[in-house]
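Quick question, first post here. What does this chain look like in 3D?
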Amino acid sequence: MPDTSPDTAVAQFAPRLVAWQKSHGRHDLPWQQTRDAFRIWLSEIMLQQTQVATVIPYYARFLDEFPTLSDLAAAPLERVLELWAGLGYYARARNLHACAVAVQRQYGGEFPRQAARIAELPGIGRSTAAAIAAFAYGERGAILDGNVKRVLTRCFGVAGFPGSPKVEKALWQLAESLLPHGPGEIESYTQGIMDLGASLCSRSKPACAICPMHDLCVARREGRQAELPEGKPVKKAVPERHVTALILHDGARILVERRPPTGIWGGLLALPEVPEGDSPAALVSRLGLALESVEALPEVRHAFTHFRLFLTPLLCRVSSRPEVGEGGLEWLPAEDFARAALPAPLRKLLLKMPSPPWGKTGVS
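> Answer (accepted):
Ran it through. Tokens below.
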């Protein structure tokens, strides 16, 4: 009978993972086969809470426009948000730009080589910093993203919600104890634990039969794959927010406003919202517009991390346009809908309207 003791599992984990990654891991992603910390950092930020297939075209577009960190740091935030639009979690884009500016100013456009110093930069946590340092500089350090937590809790039978401080601290200690010691192994190990969590050790229906940790895994041995990692404690009902937004158009363009730099959809272009207790007509009047017609459109629903948004759009034909840029307002031509810095739900609303009054010009 094979030795499946905890000490054996710890000792064999890294060698098995490194060997598996070299034979079965991912090797052809656009951000692999490079030591460029800028490109590695860009991919790591985009991959947070986002699937690889979704990230690849965004990654390519960003590098086409910003081939170096200096190019990104010199760009206006509005342009960064335009290229990010549709990728979600927009604080990542704001922090991406802020980080590029910080690296340019503090380090002359070159990322520091130590994970501890990388983690001090905007939008970069301990795990992301360790991944950047490992892939760019070969620094030995542990990562602990969602996929890694799933692998470790299952393989070593770690009970409790991984997001709780006590369990997370234990997982960090475990992750550090598993790191390989061989020269040049940290890159394969780091990529391997990401790959294992993203492929074989998936949330549902893990492929235990072909997993390199098959005989070491506590969850597989005890039939607890569905139980680990343990979920969050039962939460209260998710709050709802109901909003009326106006699609103010003149037949060829719509009026949008730039959102504040922080908060929901921070820095993006959005539809003007009717304040609670106010009326659409009153808002239109305050904007210096003349309301010609109003049509209610189907409700738009969108789930954020902490609440659900229920947005009722009103299609409003208006005249007497205010000046562009006044009060954060600007007119957006229909041909720009697809590439403007609009949140994904609003972009979809505008692009998918059956019979838009501005026609089909530039809209697919």
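Strands lie at 240-249, 253-258, 269-270, 290-296, 300-303, 308-319, 329-333.
Residues 240-351 form a domain with the Nucleoside Triphosphate Pyrophosphohydrolase fold (CATH 3.90.79.10).
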